[in-house]
Design a protein that fits this description.
heterodimer; A: mainly alpha; B: 6-stranded mixed sheet; 17 strands; globular
């Protein structure tokens, strides 16, 4: 034949592909995080921007250098480390000292991700590994929150941002008193509730103009960003739903038992980092189960642990440890929730 | 066991929506393709024992005349696709790669495509055993791609009863429209074949399952289905891989074929529409299977269509007829999800070839970089058998093939390709599973 194809390739089926790729999923998660970053900068000013820039840059650099040192092609191009950097920045107080941010970024990526073998092999969410390290190493700094919508936030940094490494920084109370607007204080709604027995109203919590970690404040915005990923089939909504549901259910039970001591489910859902964690960190596919039932169990368990830590633990917030614990249990959950396959014979019949 | 399906819920829950690409050919009538200069009839075009040659080199044969007899019960005879001369009996390339015995038939110049060989036979008064025997004589095998001898499925296994014949008109593979056109143009033959199958297996009813992207086929079948013979035609929402018999019987009747079992275990016999159309057409005239409809499509051909071609037509000749462009990069036998790439254009079209899809370099699934599994669970979400491809893939990477079979049901996988299709890391999961199955087979053969 005149138009004979000179060479035909032999590949194995399937010969079509959906076009989904790791790069595009990771890139879209970054897109989904950008509105949160923008909102946190608007709320907390230059310092939040500095923290986010620092964490992202340090995470990228750490991964790149480790790849170089181990003689591999750099993997920063897959965008996953950008997510780690942004998430770490979003979970820190906006005035967190930058040198600590750098240390946390290194811990997140070096032992948290690359030591396990890089993308796809990390047992824990790297950003939370970094944050857990910071929580253990710098318990004061990581609970030093500043008010949202402070005066001069776009012209000056929060004093603690530029703290000198290893030197004890002064308290922020004086600065907060100078820049605060109205009643905005530096305490997060969870701290107010736990230590001062003041409950912030739900609408403020939902919209997010309150003190807190840089990216955790607006439940509305976080859910919208998550919905974008779910709509693009790049995130599994079941884990988020299970975690929020688990937390709400647990909180309801506590609340019913003692309405004075324990806040209701709405407050629990909207305060702290629960929505951020449930939407962007618990859903980290690498460290979560793959079976449908496993996802529900995993999410619900994390919701339950969060609430128990908040209500009965010494810390005001429990999302981070709940997710890390969930990550640790995820392989086990996967093992015990293998789905029943089509046409499976009962155990006796199989023998 | 036999849970009754709830109306409105008759759909495939797992699986994937693959772009169909059927528009290029689904409205084109079946067209006859001329004879090539040489026809190559492999002796093993079906599952089971190869056929045994009954002609000599140099012998003249008539179109439709048997040239090889069945090599056992699970085997079928071969018939000459053209009037001509047996040129040679020797090795020929096959789609799988290795050379295999084949009969070369050189059609006479100006040989007619009319079939004169054959004689009428009365099916109404045949016993089921006689029907099984007669179907074997036609050489018909599963034309949906499996190429399993049809008469074997018509013989009800000892101790089983078949209550329903399921007729598979899903054709869920992208690009392919052969079954579609057969249903539209030959609904009577399909239904007649279904009645013969019902008679052979002793079933009182038959259900024809057609995907709802072929409503013209559904209507054609319903129009032709005038007598009250217990045949119903059902449209089911289109989704890949609904045409897999395990899934179709679950969708239509809510029955699950047990792992490692047969449809007969749940009282069913499943046949492809084109297979039944051939039986309905050939059996009353006692003729043999010598041609079939093949969709030739894909970005690499300029005259896509549904071609009725003589079995044994080499791919090269068929593609020339369909206007294969120089940019063609790979030639797929069957659909792009489960079909095999041909290694040579001298490979002939056999009974199990449903389509020829030609990809250009741009369209073929290229050498995408393989990332580690990120546990996104999409493969678990789409696997129609509820397997765990993610974990199977990880075990395959580590060479733990026995564990894959023992604990994760590797052998249930029928390689539909959904997991590989959705994998964002481009992990060739299905290929891993093929390798694992083969390694397990070889290990068992050694011990």
């Amino acid at each position: 034949m005149s138009a004979a194809p000179p060479v035909i390739e032999v590949r194995t089926s399937p010969h079509l592909h959906s076009g989904r790729s790791v790069n595009s999923i990771m890139r879209n998660v970054v897109y989904a995080l950008l509105p949160l970053c923008a909102y946190s900068v608007w709320l907390f000013g230059l310092s939040a921007l500095a923290v986010l820039a620092m964490s992202t840059a340090c995470c990228l650099l750490t991964e790149h250098l480790i790849c170089r040192l181990s003689g591999r092609e750099t993997t920063v191009g897959d965008w996953s480390v950008v997510i780690t950097g942004l998430l770490l920045g979003l979970t820190l107080p906006p005035g967190f000292p930058l040198w600590m941010v750098a240390a946390g970024s290194f811990i997140a990526v070096a032992p948290g991700k690359m030591l396990f073998g890089g993308l796809g092999f990390n047992a824990f969410n790297p950003a939370l590994v970094g944050r857990a390290f910071l929580q253990a190493a710098f318990p004061v700094a990581i609970t030093a929150y500043t008010p949202a919508l402070a005066l001069h936030r776009f012209s000056e940094l929060i004093p603690s941002t530029l703290a000198i490494p290893l030197i004890k920084a002064g308290p922020l109370a004086g600065w907060i008193a100078r820049v605060r607007v109205d009643t905005f204080s530096g305490a997060t709604p969870l701290m107010l509730r736990k230590f001062d027995h003041v409950t912030t109203d739900s609408w403020t919590l939902f919209l997010g103009a309150r003190a807190g970690s840089a990216g955790e404040t607006s439940a509305l915005l976080i859910l919208l960003c998550g919905a974008y990923l779910v709509a693009r089939k790049m995130m599994d909504w079941r884990i988020t739903a299970a975690m929020l549901g688990g937390a709400a259910l647990t909180a309801s039970l506590f609340h019913l038992a003692d309405p004075v001591r324990y806040p209701g489910p709405v407050f629990v859902l909207l305060s702290g980092g629960l929505v951020l964690g449930a939407t962007f960190m618990a859903t980290d596919p690498v460290a979560s189960p793959v079976t449908p039932l496993g996802m529900w169990i995993y999410g619900a368990l994390m919701g339950l642990i969060t609430v128990v830590i908040r209500f009965e633990g010494g810390l005001a917030e429990g999302v981070m440890y709940a997710i890390l614990l969930g990550n640790a249990l995820s392989p086990l959950i996967d093992n015990v929730t293998q789905p029943r396959i089509y046409g499976a014979r009962s155990r006796e019949a199989a023998r | 066991m036999a849970m009754t399906a709830i109306p409105g819920l008759k759909r495939l829950w797992r699986g994937v929506h693959v772009p169909e690409f059927k528009d290029a050919t689904n409205r084109l009538p079946i067209r006859r393709m001329p004879f090539p200069p040489m026809l190559i009839v492999p002796l093993s075009q079906h599952a089971g024992a190869p056929a045994v040659v009954i002609v000599r080199e140099g012998q003249e044969v008539v179109r439709g005349e048997p040239i090889a007899r069945a090599g056992g019960f699970v085997s079928v005879p071969m018939h000459s696709p053209a009037t001509g001369r047996i040129e040679r009996i020797g090795l020929a390339p096959t789609a799988r790669g290795p050379l295999a015995p084949a009969i070369y038939v050189k059609p006479y110049a100006a040989a007619s495509q009319e079939v004169l060989y054959g004689e009428p036979q009365d099916i109404e008064n045949m016993t089921p055993e006689q029907i099984v025997k007669a179907v074997q004589e036609t050489g018909v095998v599963g034309l949906g791609g499996a190429a399993f001898p049809t008469h074997v499925k018509l013989k009800v296994p000892e101790g089983k009863t078949i209550d329903t014949v399921v007729v598979n008109g899903c054709e869920c593979e992208p690009y392919l429209t052969t079954d579609h056109r057969v249903m539209v143009e030959h609904p009577g033959e399909v239904l007649h074949g279904a009645r013969i199958a019902m008679k052979a297996v002793g079933a009182a009813r038959a259900v024809v399952g057609v995907e709802d992207n072929k409503m013209d086929a559904v209507e054609a079948l319903r129009r032709a289905n005038t007598d009250s013979s217990g045949i119903s035609i059902e449209a089911v929402p289109a989704k890949y891989p609904q045409g897999a018999e395990k899934l179709l019987v679950k969708v239509l009747l809510g029955r699950e074929i047990p792992s490692g079992g047969l449809p007969a275990d749940v009282g069913l016999a499943v046949f492809n529409v084109a297979t039944l159309a051939q039986i309905g057409d050939l059996l009353p005239r006692r003729q043999g299977l010598i041609e079939r409809v093949v969709t030739i499509s894909g970005p690499g051909v300029s005259r896509p269509g549904n071609y009725l071609m003589a079995l044994g037509t080499p791919l090269g000749f068929a593609l020339e007829q369909a206007g294969c462009s120089a940019a063609a990069a790979s030639v797929i036998l069957g659909g792009p999800m489960m079909g095999a790439a041909a290694a040579s254009l001298d490979v002939p079209v056999t009974k199990g070839v449903t389509g020829i899809v030609v990809f250009t370099h741009q369209a073929a699934n290229g050498n995408a970089r393989i990332f580690p599994c990120i546990h996104c669970a999409e493969c678990v979400n789409v696997c129609p058998l509820h397997l765990n491809p993610s974990r199977l893939g990880m075990l395959a990477r580590k060479g733990r093939y026995e564990e894959m079979e023992a604990t994760l049901h590797l052998n249930d996988c029928f390689e539909c390709g959904c997991c590989s299709y959705v994998c964002p890391s481009h992990i060739p999961l299905v290929q891993y599973f093929r390798v694992a199955k083969q390694m397990n087979r070889e290990r068992k053969a050694r011990t």
